[in-house]
Protein backbone atom coordinates (compact mmCIF):
# COMPACT_ATOMS: atom_id res chain seq x y z
CA UNK A 1 0.00 0.00 0.00
CA UNK A 2 2.89 2.37 0.73
CA UNK A 3 4.26 1.74 -2.74
CA UNK A 4 0.89 2.49 -4.31
CA UNK A 5 0.60 5.75 -2.42
CA UNK A 6 4.07 6.70 -3.61
CA UNK A 7 3.06 5.99 -7.21
CA UNK A 8 -0.01 8.17 -6.92
CA UNK A 9 1.84 11.04 -5.26
CA UNK A 10 4.51 11.01 -7.95
CA UNK A 11 7.46 10.42 -5.58
CA UNK A 12 10.39 8.87 -7.44
CA UNK A 13 12.25 6.02 -5.77
CA UNK A 14 16.05 6.40 -5.67
CA UNK A 15 16.67 2.93 -7.09
CA UNK A 16 15.43 1.11 -10.13
CA UNK A 17 14.65 -2.54 -10.93
CA UNK A 18 12.24 -4.41 -13.22
CA UNK A 19 8.79 -4.88 -11.76
CA UNK A 20 8.30 -8.25 -10.07
CA UNK A 21 5.11 -10.28 -9.80
CA UNK A 22 4.38 -9.21 -6.21
CA UNK A 23 4.46 -5.54 -7.22
CA UNK A 24 1.88 -5.83 -10.00
CA UNK A 25 -1.51 -4.16 -9.61
CA UNK A 26 -4.07 -6.82 -10.71
CA UNK A 27 -6.68 -4.39 -12.00
CA UNK A 28 -4.18 -2.76 -14.39
CA UNK A 29 -3.41 -6.16 -15.94
CA UNK A 30 -7.12 -7.02 -16.17
CA UNK A 31 -8.04 -3.72 -17.83
CA UNK A 32 -5.05 -4.02 -20.15
CA UNK A 33 -6.23 -7.51 -21.11
CA UNK A 34 -9.75 -6.22 -21.81
CA UNK A 35 -8.39 -3.35 -23.92
CA UNK A 36 -5.94 -5.57 -25.82
CA UNK A 37 -8.60 -8.11 -26.77
CA UNK A 38 -11.10 -5.33 -27.47
CA UNK A 39 -8.76 -3.60 -29.92
CA UNK A 40 -8.97 -6.63 -32.19
CA UNK A 41 -12.73 -6.07 -32.56
CA UNK A 42 -11.92 -3.06 -34.75
CA UNK A 43 -8.52 -4.05 -36.12
CA UNK A 44 -9.88 -7.27 -37.59
CA UNK A 45 -11.87 -5.25 -40.12
CA UNK A 46 -8.68 -3.67 -41.49
CA UNK A 47 -6.81 -6.98 -41.34
CA UNK A 48 -9.41 -8.79 -43.43
CA UNK A 49 -11.28 -6.28 -45.59
CA UNK A 50 -10.67 -3.14 -47.66
CA UNK A 51 -11.92 0.22 -46.43
CA UNK A 52 -14.02 0.46 -49.61
CA UNK A 53 -15.84 -2.82 -48.91
CA UNK A 54 -16.64 -1.67 -45.36
CA UNK A 55 -17.99 1.62 -46.70
CA UNK A 56 -20.21 -0.33 -49.08
CA UNK A 57 -22.00 -1.82 -46.07
CA UNK A 58 -22.91 1.72 -45.03
CA UNK A 59 -24.07 2.61 -48.54
CA UNK A 60 -26.36 -0.42 -48.49
CA UNK A 61 -27.71 -0.35 -44.92
CA UNK A 62 -29.46 -3.66 -44.63
CA UNK A 63 -28.66 -7.15 -43.43
CA UNK A 64 -26.82 -8.56 -40.46
CA UNK A 65 -23.35 -7.42 -41.50
CA UNK A 66 -24.41 -3.77 -41.57
CA UNK A 67 -25.98 -3.99 -38.11
CA UNK A 68 -22.99 -5.88 -36.75
CA UNK A 69 -20.63 -3.21 -38.04
CA UNK A 70 -22.86 -0.46 -36.64
CA UNK A 71 -23.01 -2.12 -33.23
CA UNK A 72 -19.26 -2.67 -33.03
CA UNK A 73 -18.60 0.86 -34.25
CA UNK A 74 -20.92 2.45 -31.72
CA UNK A 75 -19.83 0.38 -28.72
CA UNK A 76 -16.13 -0.21 -29.26
CA UNK A 77 -14.50 1.77 -32.07
CA UNK A 78 -11.62 3.82 -30.59
CA UNK A 79 -12.87 3.09 -27.05
CA UNK A 80 -10.63 0.07 -26.44
CA UNK A 81 -7.64 1.82 -28.00
CA UNK A 82 -8.37 4.83 -25.81
CA UNK A 83 -8.41 2.59 -22.73
CA UNK A 84 -5.13 1.01 -23.86
CA UNK A 85 -3.62 4.51 -24.17
CA UNK A 86 -4.88 5.44 -20.69
CA UNK A 87 -3.21 2.36 -19.24
CA UNK A 88 0.02 3.19 -21.03
CA UNK A 89 -0.13 6.63 -19.39
CA UNK A 90 -0.53 4.93 -16.02
CA UNK A 91 2.43 2.73 -16.93
CA UNK A 92 4.61 5.81 -17.38
CA UNK A 93 4.00 6.76 -13.76
CA UNK A 94 4.61 3.19 -12.60
CA UNK A 95 7.90 2.92 -14.48
CA UNK A 96 9.26 6.20 -13.20
CA UNK A 97 8.17 5.73 -9.58
CA UNK A 98 8.80 2.03 -8.92
CA UNK A 99 12.25 0.79 -7.97
CA UNK A 100 14.34 -0.58 -10.83
CA UNK A 101 17.62 -2.52 -11.24
CA UNK A 102 21.16 -1.28 -10.61
CA UNK A 103 21.82 -0.53 -14.25
CA UNK A 104 24.11 2.44 -13.81
CA UNK A 105 21.42 4.78 -15.17
CA UNK A 106 18.81 6.94 -13.52
CA UNK A 107 15.11 6.37 -14.07
CA UNK A 108 14.55 9.05 -16.78
CA UNK A 109 17.42 7.70 -18.87
CA UNK A 110 16.07 4.17 -18.55
CA UNK A 111 12.64 5.45 -19.53
CA UNK A 112 14.00 7.12 -22.67
CA UNK A 113 15.80 3.90 -23.61
CA UNK A 114 12.57 2.00 -23.02
CA UNK A 115 10.63 4.33 -25.30
CA UNK A 116 13.27 4.28 -28.05
CA UNK A 117 13.16 0.48 -28.12
CA UNK A 118 9.36 0.69 -28.29
CA UNK A 119 9.72 2.87 -31.38
CA UNK A 120 11.94 0.16 -32.92
CA UNK A 121 9.34 -2.52 -32.15
CA UNK A 122 6.69 -0.29 -33.71
CA UNK A 123 8.74 0.04 -36.89
CA UNK A 124 9.10 -3.75 -37.03
CA UNK A 125 5.32 -4.13 -36.59
CA UNK A 126 4.58 -1.61 -39.34
CA UNK A 127 7.35 -2.25 -41.88
CA UNK A 128 8.14 -5.88 -41.10
CA UNK A 129 4.74 -7.34 -40.22
CA UNK A 130 3.05 -4.82 -42.56
CA UNK A 131 0.43 -3.58 -40.11
CA UNK A 132 -0.19 0.09 -41.05
CA UNK A 133 -2.25 0.87 -37.93
CA UNK A 134 0.55 0.07 -35.47
CA UNK A 135 0.40 2.09 -32.23
CA UNK A 136 3.75 1.16 -30.66
CA UNK A 137 5.68 3.64 -32.80
CA UNK A 138 3.32 6.43 -31.74
CA UNK A 139 3.34 5.40 -28.08
CA UNK A 140 7.12 5.44 -28.07
CA UNK A 141 7.26 9.01 -29.33
CA UNK A 142 4.42 10.45 -27.23
CA UNK A 143 5.69 8.75 -24.06
CA UNK A 144 9.02 10.57 -24.30
CA UNK A 145 7.23 13.92 -24.16
CA UNK A 146 5.07 12.86 -21.22
CA UNK A 147 7.53 11.75 -18.55
CA UNK A 148 8.02 15.30 -17.13
CA UNK A 149 4.26 15.39 -16.43
CA UNK A 150 4.34 12.70 -13.74
CA UNK A 151 4.70 15.23 -10.91
CA UNK A 152 1.56 17.15 -11.89
CA UNK A 153 -1.53 16.78 -9.74
CA UNK A 154 -4.43 14.69 -11.08
CA UNK A 155 -6.45 17.85 -11.66
CA UNK A 156 -3.64 19.46 -13.67
CA UNK A 157 -3.25 16.28 -15.72
CA UNK A 158 -6.99 16.28 -16.40
CA UNK A 159 -6.84 19.88 -17.60
CA UNK A 160 -3.94 18.99 -19.91
CA UNK A 161 -5.92 16.00 -21.23
CA UNK A 162 -8.95 18.19 -21.99
CA UNK A 163 -6.77 20.78 -23.75
CA UNK A 164 -5.14 18.08 -25.89
CA UNK A 165 -8.59 16.66 -26.68
CA UNK A 166 -9.85 20.09 -27.73
CA UNK A 167 -6.83 20.54 -30.00
CA UNK A 168 -7.60 17.16 -31.55
CA UNK A 169 -11.24 18.22 -32.11
CA UNK A 170 -10.02 21.51 -33.53
CA UNK A 171 -7.72 19.73 -35.97
CA UNK A 172 -10.63 17.62 -37.24
CA UNK A 173 -12.81 20.72 -37.53
CA UNK A 174 -10.03 22.50 -39.44
CA UNK A 175 -9.90 19.61 -41.90
CA UNK A 176 -13.67 19.84 -42.37
CA UNK A 177 -13.46 23.63 -42.86
CA UNK A 178 -10.82 23.19 -45.58
CA UNK A 179 -13.05 20.69 -47.37
CA UNK A 180 -16.01 23.07 -47.11
CA UNK A 181 -13.87 25.87 -48.52
CA UNK A 182 -13.03 23.71 -51.55
CA UNK A 183 -16.75 23.06 -52.06
CA UNK A 184 -17.61 26.75 -51.85
CA UNK A 185 -14.93 27.57 -54.43
CA UNK A 186 -16.35 24.89 -56.71
CA UNK A 187 -20.00 26.08 -56.56
CA UNK A 188 -19.68 29.20 -58.76
CA UNK A 189 -17.62 27.21 -61.27
CA UNK A 190 -20.33 24.53 -61.46
CA UNK A 191 -22.98 27.24 -61.91
CA UNK A 192 -20.91 28.87 -64.65
CA UNK A 193 -20.49 25.60 -66.53
CA UNK A 194 -24.19 24.82 -66.16
CA UNK A 195 -25.06 28.18 -67.69
CA UNK A 196 -22.52 27.89 -70.50
CA UNK A 197 -21.12 24.43 -71.19
CA UNK A 198 -18.50 25.81 -73.57
CA UNK A 199 -17.10 28.35 -71.10
CA UNK A 200 -13.31 28.42 -70.86
CA UNK A 201 -12.08 28.23 -67.27
CA UNK A 202 -9.05 30.02 -65.95
CA UNK A 203 -6.16 28.03 -64.49
CA UNK A 204 -7.30 28.99 -61.00
CA UNK A 205 -10.83 27.79 -61.71
CA UNK A 206 -9.53 24.53 -63.17
CA UNK A 207 -7.45 23.95 -60.06
CA UNK A 208 -10.41 24.63 -57.76
CA UNK A 209 -12.65 22.31 -59.79
CA UNK A 210 -10.05 19.56 -59.82
CA UNK A 211 -9.47 19.85 -56.06
CA UNK A 212 -13.15 19.38 -55.23
CA UNK A 213 -13.83 16.64 -57.79
CA UNK A 214 -10.75 14.75 -56.56
CA UNK A 215 -12.06 14.96 -53.00
CA UNK A 216 -15.47 13.65 -54.05
CA UNK A 217 -13.87 10.83 -56.02
CA UNK A 218 -11.94 9.73 -52.93
CA UNK A 219 -15.27 9.19 -51.16
CA UNK A 220 -16.90 7.21 -53.98
CA UNK A 221 -16.78 3.46 -54.43
CA UNK A 222 -14.42 2.33 -57.17
CA UNK A 223 -14.95 -1.37 -57.80
CA UNK A 224 -11.90 -1.64 -60.03
CA UNK A 225 -9.62 -0.06 -57.42
CA UNK A 226 -11.18 -2.18 -54.66
CA UNK A 227 -10.55 -5.39 -56.61
CA UNK A 228 -6.96 -4.25 -57.25
CA UNK A 229 -6.47 -3.74 -53.50
CA UNK A 230 -7.72 -7.24 -52.75
CA UNK A 231 -5.51 -8.74 -55.46
CA UNK A 232 -2.43 -6.92 -54.12
CA UNK A 233 -3.09 -8.05 -50.54
CA UNK A 234 -3.39 -11.67 -51.70
CA UNK A 235 0.02 -11.52 -53.38
CA UNK A 236 3.57 -12.30 -52.20
CA UNK A 237 5.35 -10.41 -49.41
CA UNK A 238 7.10 -7.87 -51.64
CA UNK A 239 3.85 -6.96 -53.41
CA UNK A 240 1.99 -6.55 -50.12
CA UNK A 241 4.89 -4.48 -48.76
CA UNK A 242 4.81 -2.14 -51.76
CA UNK A 243 1.02 -1.87 -51.54
CA UNK A 244 1.02 -1.06 -47.80
CA UNK A 245 4.01 1.30 -47.87
CA UNK A 246 2.06 4.47 -48.72
CA UNK A 247 -0.53 3.78 -46.00
CA UNK A 248 2.19 3.09 -43.43
CA UNK A 249 3.99 6.32 -44.33
CA UNK A 250 0.72 8.25 -44.00
CA UNK A 251 -0.08 6.77 -40.59
CA UNK A 252 3.41 7.19 -39.12
CA UNK A 253 4.13 10.68 -40.42
CA UNK A 254 1.48 13.18 -41.69
CA UNK A 255 -1.54 11.64 -39.97
CA UNK A 256 0.29 11.19 -36.68
CA UNK A 257 1.92 14.60 -36.47
CA UNK A 258 -1.14 16.50 -37.69
CA UNK A 259 -3.82 14.78 -35.61
CA UNK A 260 -2.93 11.46 -34.01
CA UNK A 261 -0.42 12.83 -31.54
CA UNK A 262 -3.15 14.90 -29.84
CA UNK A 263 -5.47 11.91 -29.66
CA UNK A 264 -2.87 9.71 -27.95
CA UNK A 265 -1.60 12.57 -25.78
CA UNK A 266 -5.06 13.33 -24.41
CA UNK A 267 -5.80 9.70 -23.52
CA UNK A 268 -2.41 9.08 -21.90
CA UNK A 269 -2.72 12.23 -19.80
CA UNK A 270 -6.21 11.15 -18.76
CA UNK A 271 -4.84 7.74 -17.80
CA UNK A 272 -2.15 9.36 -15.66
CA UNK A 273 -4.79 11.44 -13.88
CA UNK A 274 -7.07 8.44 -13.32
CA UNK A 275 -4.20 6.39 -11.94
CA UNK A 276 -3.23 9.11 -9.47
CA UNK A 277 -6.86 9.33 -8.36
CA UNK A 278 -6.82 5.56 -7.72
CA UNK A 279 -9.46 4.82 -10.36
CA UNK A 280 -7.39 2.25 -12.28
CA UNK A 281 -6.18 0.49 -9.13
CA UNK A 282 -9.75 -0.03 -7.80
CA UNK A 283 -9.39 2.43 -4.91
CA UNK A 284 -12.67 4.30 -5.43
CA UNK A 285 -15.86 3.36 -3.63
CA UNK A 286 -18.39 1.03 -5.23
CA UNK A 287 -20.87 3.91 -5.42
CA UNK A 288 -18.33 6.01 -7.33
CA UNK A 289 -17.70 3.21 -9.81
CA UNK A 290 -21.44 2.72 -10.33
CA UNK A 291 -21.83 6.45 -11.00
CA UNK A 292 -18.89 6.46 -13.44
CA UNK A 293 -20.08 3.30 -15.21
CA UNK A 294 -23.60 4.61 -15.77
CA UNK A 295 -22.61 8.22 -16.43
CA UNK A 296 -19.64 7.37 -18.65
CA UNK A 297 -21.54 4.92 -20.84
CA UNK A 298 -24.65 7.09 -21.06
CA UNK A 299 -22.72 10.20 -22.12
CA UNK A 300 -20.21 8.36 -24.30
CA UNK A 301 -22.77 6.22 -26.08
CA UNK A 302 -25.12 9.17 -26.54
CA UNK A 303 -22.29 10.97 -28.34
CA UNK A 304 -21.50 7.84 -30.37
CA UNK A 305 -25.04 7.33 -31.62
CA UNK A 306 -25.66 11.05 -32.21
CA UNK A 307 -22.55 11.23 -34.38
CA UNK A 308 -23.42 8.07 -36.33
CA UNK A 309 -25.68 9.80 -38.93
CA UNK A 310 -22.93 12.34 -39.64
CA UNK A 311 -20.37 9.55 -40.08
CA UNK A 312 -22.63 7.58 -42.42
CA UNK A 313 -23.64 10.64 -44.47
CA UNK A 314 -19.97 11.40 -45.11
CA UNK A 315 -19.64 7.94 -46.68
CA UNK A 316 -22.97 7.83 -48.52
CA UNK A 317 -23.12 11.38 -49.94
CA UNK A 318 -19.98 13.39 -49.34
CA UNK A 319 -21.27 16.47 -51.19
CA UNK A 320 -24.44 16.59 -49.06
CA UNK A 321 -22.35 16.06 -45.93
CA UNK A 322 -20.11 19.04 -46.71
CA UNK A 323 -22.85 21.33 -48.02
CA UNK A 324 -25.42 20.59 -45.33
CA UNK A 325 -23.34 20.42 -42.16
CA UNK A 326 -21.86 23.35 -40.28
CA UNK A 327 -20.00 21.10 -37.85
CA UNK A 328 -18.34 17.68 -38.27
CA UNK A 329 -20.19 16.14 -35.34
CA UNK A 330 -18.37 12.79 -35.41
CA UNK A 331 -14.96 14.47 -35.43
CA UNK A 332 -15.70 17.07 -32.76
CA UNK A 333 -17.28 14.51 -30.41
CA UNK A 334 -14.60 11.86 -30.96
CA UNK A 335 -12.06 12.54 -28.16
CA UNK A 336 -14.77 13.06 -25.54
CA UNK A 337 -16.99 10.22 -26.74
CA UNK A 338 -14.12 7.73 -26.38
CA UNK A 339 -13.00 9.17 -23.02
CA UNK A 340 -16.45 8.89 -21.42
CA UNK A 341 -17.11 5.46 -22.95
CA UNK A 342 -13.71 4.08 -21.93
CA UNK A 343 -14.16 5.25 -18.35
CA UNK A 344 -17.63 3.68 -18.36
CA UNK A 345 -16.39 0.33 -19.69
CA UNK A 346 -13.46 0.31 -17.26
CA UNK A 347 -15.78 1.09 -14.35
CA UNK A 348 -18.08 -1.76 -15.37
CA UNK A 349 -15.15 -4.19 -15.49
CA UNK A 350 -13.86 -3.03 -12.09
CA UNK A 351 -17.32 -3.39 -10.55
CA UNK A 352 -17.63 -6.96 -11.81
CA UNK A 353 -14.11 -7.75 -10.58
CA UNK A 354 -14.84 -6.24 -7.18
CA UNK A 355 -18.05 -8.29 -6.94
CA UNK A 356 -16.02 -11.48 -7.37
CA UNK A 357 -18.01 -12.59 -10.41
CA UNK A 358 -16.20 -15.17 -12.57
CA UNK A 359 -12.76 -15.01 -10.98
CA UNK A 360 -11.45 -17.48 -13.59
CA UNK A 361 -12.22 -14.84 -16.23
CA UNK A 362 -10.29 -12.13 -14.39
CA UNK A 363 -7.33 -14.44 -14.02
CA UNK A 364 -7.39 -15.10 -17.77
CA UNK A 365 -7.75 -11.42 -18.66
CA UNK A 366 -5.02 -10.49 -16.19
CA UNK A 367 -2.67 -12.98 -17.84
CA UNK A 368 -3.43 -11.53 -21.28
CA UNK A 369 -2.83 -8.05 -19.90
CA UNK A 370 0.45 -9.04 -18.28
CA UNK A 371 1.61 -10.24 -21.71
CA UNK A 372 -0.02 -7.32 -23.56
CA UNK A 373 3.10 -6.42 -25.54
CA UNK A 374 3.61 -9.99 -26.74
CA UNK A 375 -0.11 -10.44 -27.42
CA UNK A 376 -0.37 -7.18 -29.36
CA UNK A 377 2.39 -8.20 -31.76
CA UNK A 378 1.04 -11.75 -31.81
CA UNK A 379 -2.23 -10.39 -33.20
CA UNK A 380 -0.29 -8.78 -36.04
CA UNK A 381 1.57 -12.02 -36.78
CA UNK A 382 -1.50 -14.26 -36.64
CA UNK A 383 -3.81 -11.98 -38.61
CA UNK A 384 -1.35 -11.00 -41.34
CA UNK A 385 -0.41 -14.65 -41.86
CA UNK A 386 -4.08 -15.61 -42.01
CA UNK A 387 -5.25 -12.83 -44.34
CA UNK A 388 -2.26 -11.71 -46.44
CA UNK A 389 -1.20 -13.48 -49.60
CA UNK A 390 2.15 -14.72 -48.28
CA UNK A 391 0.14 -16.62 -45.63
CA UNK A 392 -3.25 -18.24 -46.12
CA UNK A 393 -4.54 -15.40 -48.31
CA UNK A 394 -8.05 -14.92 -46.90
CA UNK A 395 -8.00 -11.14 -47.40
CA UNK A 396 -11.33 -9.92 -48.78
CA UNK A 397 -12.68 -13.47 -48.81
CA UNK A 398 -14.73 -13.49 -45.59
CA UNK A 399 -17.96 -11.73 -44.68
CA UNK A 400 -17.85 -9.30 -41.78
CA UNK A 401 -19.53 -11.70 -39.35
CA UNK A 402 -16.99 -14.39 -40.27
CA UNK A 403 -14.16 -12.08 -39.21
CA UNK A 404 -15.48 -12.25 -35.66
CA UNK A 405 -15.14 -16.02 -35.67
CA UNK A 406 -11.45 -15.38 -36.32
CA UNK A 407 -11.47 -12.88 -33.43
CA UNK A 408 -12.89 -15.50 -31.07
CA UNK A 409 -10.22 -18.00 -32.13
CA UNK A 410 -7.41 -15.48 -31.61
CA UNK A 411 -8.84 -14.56 -28.19
CA UNK A 412 -8.96 -18.19 -27.14
CA UNK A 413 -5.43 -18.83 -28.35
CA UNK A 414 -4.05 -15.78 -26.54
CA UNK A 415 -5.83 -16.56 -23.28
CA UNK A 416 -4.55 -20.15 -23.23
CA UNK A 417 -1.05 -19.09 -24.27
CA UNK A 418 -0.87 -16.37 -21.62
CA UNK A 419 -2.05 -18.63 -18.78
CA UNK A 420 0.30 -21.47 -19.71
CA UNK A 421 3.28 -19.18 -20.27
CA UNK A 422 2.98 -17.46 -16.89
CA UNK A 423 3.06 -20.79 -15.09
CA UNK A 424 6.76 -21.00 -15.93
CA UNK A 425 7.99 -17.50 -16.76
CA UNK A 426 8.06 -14.06 -15.13
CA UNK A 427 7.45 -12.13 -18.35
CA UNK A 428 6.12 -12.68 -21.82
CA UNK A 429 8.83 -13.35 -24.43
CA UNK A 430 8.69 -9.84 -25.89
CA UNK A 431 8.27 -8.21 -22.47
CA UNK A 432 11.45 -10.02 -21.45
CA UNK A 433 13.29 -8.86 -24.60
CA UNK A 434 12.10 -5.27 -24.13
CA UNK A 435 13.27 -5.22 -20.49
CA UNK A 436 16.61 -6.81 -21.34
CA UNK A 437 17.25 -4.24 -24.07
CA UNK A 438 16.16 -1.39 -21.79
CA UNK A 439 18.45 -2.40 -18.91
CA UNK A 440 21.29 -3.48 -21.18
CA UNK A 441 21.55 -6.97 -19.68
CA UNK A 442 19.68 -10.23 -19.70
CA UNK A 443 16.79 -10.25 -17.23
CA UNK A 444 15.78 -13.39 -15.29
CA UNK A 445 13.10 -15.17 -17.30
CA UNK A 446 12.05 -18.33 -15.49
CA UNK A 447 10.23 -18.19 -12.19
CA UNK A 448 12.99 -20.31 -10.65
CA UNK A 449 15.75 -17.83 -11.57
CA UNK A 450 17.05 -15.50 -8.89
CA UNK A 451 16.59 -11.75 -9.38
CA UNK A 452 19.41 -9.23 -9.10
CA UNK A 453 19.74 -7.27 -5.84
CA UNK A 454 18.43 -3.72 -5.86
CA UNK A 455 21.22 -1.11 -6.08
CA UNK A 456 21.10 2.68 -6.34
CA UNK A 457 21.24 4.27 -9.76
CA UNK A 458 23.73 6.94 -10.70
CA UNK A 459 22.74 10.53 -9.99
Automatic annotation (TrEMBL):
One matching Pfam family: DUF418
Transmembrane segments: 30-49, 80-97, 117-150, 156-174, 261-280, 286-306, 342-362, 374-395, 401-422
Keyword presence, Transmembrane helix: yes
Signal sequence annotation: none
InterPro entries: Bact_Transport_Assoc, DUF418
Keyword Membrane: yes
Protein name as catalogued: DUF418 domain-containing protein
Amino acid sequence: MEALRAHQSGEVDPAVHPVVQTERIPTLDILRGVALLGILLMNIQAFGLTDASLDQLIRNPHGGNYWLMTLVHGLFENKMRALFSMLFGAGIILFLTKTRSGSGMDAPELFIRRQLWLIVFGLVNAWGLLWPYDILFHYGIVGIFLFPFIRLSPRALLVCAVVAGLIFSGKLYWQFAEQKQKYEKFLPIAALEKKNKKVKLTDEQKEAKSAWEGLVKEHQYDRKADNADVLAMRSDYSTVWAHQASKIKEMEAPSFYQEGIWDILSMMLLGMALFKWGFLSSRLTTRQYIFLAIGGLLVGQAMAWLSMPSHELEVVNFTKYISGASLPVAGVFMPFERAFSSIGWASLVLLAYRAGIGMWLWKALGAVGQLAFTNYLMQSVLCTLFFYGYGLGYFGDLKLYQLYIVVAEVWLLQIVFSLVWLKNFRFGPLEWLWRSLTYGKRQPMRLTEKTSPVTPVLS
